[in-house]
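Sat 14:20. Reprocessing the chain from the morning session after the first attempt stalled halfway. Input below, unchanged.
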Amino acid sequence: MENLEGFRNPFLGAPANSALDPRSKNFSTKIWLSNLVGYMLKDPQRFQSRYAGVSFRNLEAHGFGSPTDYQKNVGNIWFGFSSFYRWLAGERKQRIQILSDFNGLVGAGEMLLVLGRPGSGCSTLLKTISGDTYGFFVCPESKINYQGIPADQMHTQFRGEAIYMAETDVHFPQLTVGQTLLFAAKARAPRDNTFPGVTRDMYAEHLRDVIMATFGLSHTINTNVGSSLVKGVSGGERKRVSIAEAALQGSPLQCWDNSTRGLDSANALEFCKTLRLSTDLAGATALVSLYQGSQDAYDVSCPMFVIS
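Finished this time. C-alpha cells:
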C-alpha cells in the first residue's frame, strides 16, 4: 500500500470498516476528502489542481415577451395565427429587463449565497455565470471573467468547468441509482493509472460509492430512479441523485439553483455542509440560491448576494 506521509491512495484497498471505506458505517466524507486532497498535493505535477473564481461587472440580462403570452397545447395551438397577424401588423415583443448593473467577485474556494424573491432574477444570474443563457440575452457591455479566462473562451473550450444545476430533476427513470451515478462518474473519470494502479473503472466505481455514502443513497443502488410515471425512489432521494450527479463532475465553478427543493431540513443542511467542505478542501467555487432554508444553512453559506 502506497503511503505518502500519512496520506494514502484512497482508490486502492481502503482498510475495511475505516473512515476511508465508503461501504462502511464508519465512513467520513471529510476524512476521505482531506486524505484525497493531501495525497494529490504530494505530487502536483501529476495531479494539477483546477480553480475558477469569477468576477462580473456591469452585468445586464434581458428577454422579450408579450402581454398576452400563453402556454401552447393541442387545444389552443390555433391561437398562434393571431400572433402571426399581429407580427405582420408591426406589433413586436416587449423587452423585459431581468438583471441590471450587477457587480461582484467570487474567489476560488468561496461560497456565495444568492437571495431574492421568486422572479427577481436569481436563476438568471446563476445561468449567466455558468454560460447557460438559452432563452435570454446578456448585454455585450457586460464583463465576465473567470480568473483571467474571458467568458466566450470559458463557455466553449472549458464548458465542463462551470456547471448550472437546475431545481428540476431529469433522469432516465428505468436506470437504477447505481447505474445513473456510475455513468456520471465514468464521464469525468481520468485516464488509467492517473492514480497509480487505478483504472478508470476502479476510479468510477469507488467515487460512485463515496458519493452515494455522502448523500445517503447507498441503500438505493439497485433501485430505479423512477419518475412521476415510473416507480422508483422517493422524491427526496431523486433530488439527492441529481445533486450527486453534479457533485461527480467535480467542476471548479458550480451554480446551484434552489437544489434543496424537495429535501427535508436535515438533508438540506447536510447538502450545504458538503458544499462548504468542497470549497474549503478542494478549492471549488459554489454559488447557491436557497429558499426556505434553516438558519444553520445560511450560517454555512456566506457571504450573501441579495437581489431585490
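The longest helix spans residues 265-282.
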